[in-house]
Amino acid sequence: MSTTESTTEQRELSIDTIRFSAGYDEKKHNYAVSPPIYQTTSFDFGGVERANRLTSFKEVGNIYSRTGNPTVGILEEKLRILEGGSGAVACASGMSAISLSILNVAEGGGRILTTPYLYGGTKDSFKKVFPKFGIHFDYAKNILNPEKLGEEIKEDTKAIYLETISNPNGFLLDVDAISAVAHEHGIPVIIDNTVATPYIYKPLEHGADVVVYSATKGLNGQANGLAGIIIEGGTFDYNTDKFAHFREKYYTLRDRDTEEERSFLDVFPDAPFTFRTRFNYVSFFGASLSPYNAYMTLLGIETLTERLGKESKNALKIAQFLETHQGVEWVRYSGLESSPYYDLAKRDYPNGVGSLISFGFRGTNDQIETFIDALEIFHYHVNLGDTRSLITNSPKNTHGELTAEEKEIADIPLNLIRLSIGLENVDDLISDLNQAFVKALN
Length: 442
Ligand SMILES: *Cc1c(COP(=O)(O)O)cnc(C)c1O
Prior knowledge:
The chain is α/β, with parallel strands linked by helices. It has helices at 7-11, 15-21, 48-55, 70-83, 94-105, 120-128, 175-184, 197-200, 244-247, 264-267, 272-282, 291-302, 304-323, 342-348, 365-374, 404-409, 426-441, and strands at residues 87-91, 110-114, 135-139, 157-163, 189-192, 210-214, 228-232, 328-332, 356-361, 379-380, 390-392, 416-420. It has 2 domains: 14-301, Aspartate Aminotransferase, domain 2, CATH 3.40.640.10; 304-441, Aspartate Aminotransferase, domain 1.
């Protein structure tokens, strides 16, 4: 569980340094160097007096692993500090982090303003599932012209939901400008920062209010555990008529001395979004993260900066190679000078723009299939941000659920190939791509 101790002290140090210590105090865990896996469902109250303190939120502690677990808590606290937030709650997967955030912000119904540039599963759930809960999505036309975005915020719009860096195209957004408009209209901005990770981009520093992750991808990096997390900035004011559900008083949050019922805003004024999501959604929908998968994610974060740093460097070289190849129609990678996002990348992404590249294959569908099968180093599957380099033909799989029209709006042409660049030797990767082009095109 999150507390705000030592944040400012820690935030002045580089992420290279604090990724190890943030959220983890060895002294509280028998001086264990690697965070222990607390493989337990329940925690003893240790006496009636302590039980009363815990259940009345006078003391923050673990009771049952569906609402909190120490290993999961280390991960929550680490990411809260790395992102510079006021609270964090982990959950079973990226999709649960996204879905539960949407339900929490738009509880009871309403609209979310978003873009067509989203992960396939997110997009599909926005279409098929949320409207049945009274939550509807508008696809903004002015996301690249934030000064006009205000026109698209309606009376019942509850949030703006975005991805930066977008999957699969790697589009970047001016989150500072978009957040300023959102705040003028009294709504928060939720960012899926999965592709970037906090090494590449920190949405809260650019005005966003909530960050969601599929920690399954770059944060873990080794494809060995699903995980999700939600982090909040702590500055957005939910105490307005639009978010009346945040003012709702609950018996379970009552003051044990006065018996007065209280709301999440009353009890957790610094982090109402994450505590409300934790107790009303993660716990009741049972989407809790297992301590084992939290541990796997913690191991991944220990090498985050080396992985993302080398992957970004490798990816830039590969994007430059692709740009000159006759088998390639276009390349989307905002680290390239030819990218329309290059200036924004220089301004907001000092550590590089990550491992995701997409390109248009100049050839037939049969040739694309020959190309994929001919690769010897690249793996063919749908993960992202892995230590191994991956290839996928997004229109067929990661975004296969989009109709032809939706693919056109999302700018995912049928010849789009997505690469996620790993830690192999970059010259070996380039020669692998090269030999596959030769086999496919001759
Ligand atoms: C994979 C992914 C998700 C979903 O995450 P899971 O952990 O697979 O549930 C969400 N957003 C983005 C950008 C992703 O790449």
